[in-house]
Design goal:
about 210 residues; Rossmann fold; 7 strands; about 30% helix; globular; binds S-adenosylmethionine; S-adenosyl-L-methionine; O-methyltransferase; transferase; SAM_O-MeTrfase
């Protein structure tokens, strides 16, 4: 269950690309999250930690901070000096995530929380600079997040989507978006997908070294 606390001020700092302070994304700060949206469970979290470990991940992007469950798993797999950039429209949820990670002993220098719409923030991050991108927000936008997230990966990196494996059982327009995601992945020979039956399902997609 998602806790909602009063709106809070979250420092954002400059993003990777010059002149790209959040600006227009700030209007979204403080929107309450959909209470039906859940944190990832332990089996999906363990898979994320595994992926971050095998990738020796130093730089990771997360879309959908929520209250920090996936961030915690990712950080535990990343190298000790690795930095997680975590994006969410819900600054209040990010505040909870930040405090939860601090309580777990994660140094604040290892996280960069950005409050804003992922579709506006992702284009401002450096292309080819990330080992792993994890997407856990708005399945209807997954095709757009693939288009925005895949270019951020270094060759050999991976983008992972939460919960799209059972697209056929989902309702429109989400199912339509998930079929579109599958089509886009199949059409791009530089992408190597695998559906992982953990938690609500993960779709992990590697970007080949040749791309
Ligand atoms: C399923 S929750 C994330 C849970 C989190 N990964 C965890 O394990 O605790 C989805 C989150 O995505 C955020 N969100 C929804 N649409 C978004 C968007 N377009 N850009 C950024 N964040 C978004 C919501 O505010 C919500 O906190």
């Amino acid at each position: 269950m998602r806790l909602v606390i009063p709106e809070t001020s979250i420092g954002t700092g400059p993003l990777d690309r010059p002149g790209s302070m959040l600006g227009d994304a700030r209007g979204s700060i403080g929107h309450a999250a959909d209470p039906a949206e859940e944190s990832i469970d332990g089996s999906a979290g363990a898979a994320l930690r595994f992926l971050a470990t095998v990738l020796r991940a130093k730089s990771v992007v997360e879309v959908g901070s929520g209250t920090g469950a996936s961030a915690s798993w990712l950080l535990r797999g990343m190298v000790p000096e690795g930095v997680l950039t975590s994006i969410d429209i819900d600054a209040a949820a990010q505040h909870i995530a930040r405090e939860a990670l601090a309580a777990q002993g994660v140094p604040r220098s290892r996280t960069r929380f950005i409050a804003g719409l992922a579709e506006r923030v992702l284009p401002k991050l450096t292309e080819g600079a990330y080992d792993l991108v994890f997407v856990d927000a708005m399945p209807a936008k997954y095709p757009a997040f693939l288009e925005l997230g895949a270019p951020l990966l270094r060759p050999g990196g991976a983008i992972v989507f939460a919960g799209p494996v059972d697209a056929a059982q989902r309702q429109e327009p989400r199912a339509q978006a998930l079929r579109e995601l599958t089509r886009a992945v199949r059409a791009d020979e530089s992408l190597v997908p695998v559906a992982l039956p953990v938690g609500d399902g993960l779709l992990a997609i590697a970007r080949t070294e040749q791309s």
